[in-house]
Amino acid sequence: MSGPPAGGLSRGDVASRMRHGLANQAPDATSRSLWEIVRANVLTLFNAIVGTSFVLLLLLGSWQDALFGLSAVGNSVIGVVQEYRAKVSLDRLAVLEAPRARVLRDGTVQEIATADVVLDDVLVLRAGDQVTADAAVLESGGLEADESLLTGESDPVDREVGSEVLSGSIIVAGRGTARVVRVGAESFASRLTADAKRFSLVNSEIRNSLDRILRWLTWALLPVALIVANGEMQSRGGWEQAIASGAWTSALVGVIASVIAMIPLGLVLLSSVAFAVGGVRLAGNKVLIQELAAVEGLARVDVLCLDKTGTLTEGQIVFDGVHELAEPAEPGWEHALGWFAADPEANATSRCLEAAFGHNGGNPAVSSVPFSSARKWSSVTFDGGSQRRGSWILGAPEVVLTERSGAGAVAGSPAGVALGKAGQLAASGLRTVVLAYAGDTAIAADKATLPSDVKPVVVLTFREQIRPDARQTLAYFREEGVALKIISGDDPRTVAAIARSVGLDVVDGYDARTLPADPRLLEEVMATYMVFGRVSPDQKKDMVAALQRRGHTVAMTGDGVNDVLALKEADLGIAMNSAAAATKAVARLVLLDGRFDRLPGVLAEGRRVIANIERVSKLFLSKTAYSIAIAVSFGLLNLQFPFLPRQLSFTDGLTIGIPAFFLALMANARPYRPGFLRRSLSFAMPAGLIVAASLLGLNVYANSSGSAAASPEALQSASVLTLALLGLWILSVVSRPLDAKKLAVLIAMCTALLVLLNLPLAQEFLKLTLPPADMLWAAGAAVVGGGLVLEVLAWVHGRKFPR
């Protein structure tokens, strides 16, 4: 395609480019469709096992034994809802927020939809516009673009003819035209958006550990089920007799009971509930959780990467003060500053002066030169009247006083004094600007050159507004052993000064333009330095990845689109409410009121969730351990499985499900320690073996006694009583140290057990009966013996893993 004519593209040119797919339409699909989300959460191996067991029990007429299906449904629903919310958030992600674009077509300026911009269109750019596609500048009248959302550079960038303006940047000064050179998926904004839309779940140690347990159980289920099935059939006279007599139906119920008992469905569900409750609690404190497992994330973080603008600072430049020089200031300088502040074409720095220096109109300016980031100064010329006659110049001291002052800038001269003063102020992290007077020399807009003789009048300082909560919050993280990294697109000296102002021990910042390309060297740099400036978006992502390769769990805060890729790469992305829409879409946490001091509360909530889930996981995994041990041992010894599914649901509810729900929501400030799964299994596996050994001893005794105690109903009842009491014993061990709330839960469960075992309706539903006296003594002995061994286990585990 040829370039545009002087009057822009014609209607025919636009139609041709539309047909060739050269319009500004970017693909908006995320990596997972709704069907893919449903399939990933519903069509799983464990759901297949649970669903098949559920259907078989219904076909056998044992609907009372199929209550476990509700837990599986809950797990699937929570998983689908959680991932679908993430999908909706990603689908809304956009770097470009401009609904309309201004283009030159057929010799006239037209406003069109952003998606209708085509390759080679001529964009007509004015102050306040967002650039809708990557374009090369054709005409520039002081054109300046704010690319801070894209690159992190807080200063506007001057765009001359031939340079490029990137899609997503904002025109903050001047006007001009630009030819579109990249559209749609090829534009900078679309490429950034595509990377951000890549679907991923937050890295959760709890979820990873549960997934690992489920994978292990996958391999164990089939062989254990076959062992149980053989034992059940042999205990009923062998396969042929059991099939002929119809006893195979009760044997199948026993197999299903053993299989379902092995799966810690309640733990998966309770983990999701604990995360959800944590999310609700944080929402009450103005913290939005985009993904439930993110509640856990910050508790595991050991490196916190902070973007300066919008995180440590409020993202705005504020006027700091006036610093007069040795000589008396030229009269009229306040009026000049008022004019600069009120100028419609004033940049952000000049507008900061409006509150301090009012402008009453006065005589209009004879001429003025708007600020340009290339020139680094602006000027205004008056012809007298209420305002001092002459030219006033506002700009960077090193430009205004050095380039045209010649020998006048030597030490001791007015220019030298001003430059020395400005240098001292800049070293403290302040941004400095000088106001100079050029006498009667007029500065024309079409010949924007500095006069040869300018006199410095005052030095003005500006600063970024530090968040009032930044110092205290950073001190908290340092006390908690979390390393801090300040990463910004601004000058490293400025970033280092701001870091010092919030209490960090920093000498100099590292200039990211010299970052090594070698990944190993980059890791060393990240380990050595705390403050980094002039960092590009891609570098931020690489820096986060380098920290992760060194084994760190990394959180990243930010508010600009330039932070999107790093937030996506980090283990936990945190966005401020002032952040761009794209940034909030990919973040795991959003601070809705922008208060940085919310993060310690998030850390505390994450610790509570992790510590409590680890506590209740010992209950659920103990059940999995004794279920496998009972199934294997009883099957190999050709003993009937001692429980019905409904009886296991009853004991699970009293000793695990209900108390675990309360334990998971209680306060727990224990610091995070890695190794959640190892600690849980080191208690749960021996505890499960102790319970299984106690039940096995009871059943072997009953079957060898030759008394009526060996009847299936009596034996099941004695086994249920033994399992329930040992389960409550494990609950008391796991709940320690006991306080009033935990003790209340334990007493309530013991009371409920006593009431239900003596309630006729419950006895009928659960098929329980009062065992004979000798069986009760045997059950009591099994409980006491197993309980004492559990106490020894608790003591050994406590010594190995102190709280």
From TrEMBL:
Membrane-spanning segments: 42-60, 213-231, 251-277, 625-644, 650-669, 681-702, 714-731, 743-763, 775-796
Predominant subcellular localization, coarse grouping: membrane
KW Translocase (keyword) present: yes
A GO MF term: hydrolase activity
Subcellular location, record wording: Cell membrane
Pfam family, one: E1-E2_ATPase
Gene3D superfamilies listed in its UniProt record: Calcium-transporting ATPase, cytoplasmic domain N (3.40.1110.10), Calcium-transporting ATPase, cytoplasmic transduction domain A (2.70.150.10), Calcium-transporting ATPase, transmembrane domain (1.20.1110.10), HAD superfamily/HAD-like (3.40.50.1000)
Keyword Glycosyltransferase belongs to the record: no
Membrane topology annotation: Multi-pass membrane protein
All copies of domain P-type ATPase A, residue ranges: 96-195
Keywords assigned: Hydrolase, Membrane, Translocase, Transmembrane, Transmembrane helix
Enzyme class, first EC level, given as a word: hydrolase
Enzyme nomenclature, EC number: 3.6.3.-
Name of the featured protein: Cation-transporting ATPase E
Source organism phylogeny: Bacteria, Bacillati, Actinomycetota, Actinomycetes, Micrococcales
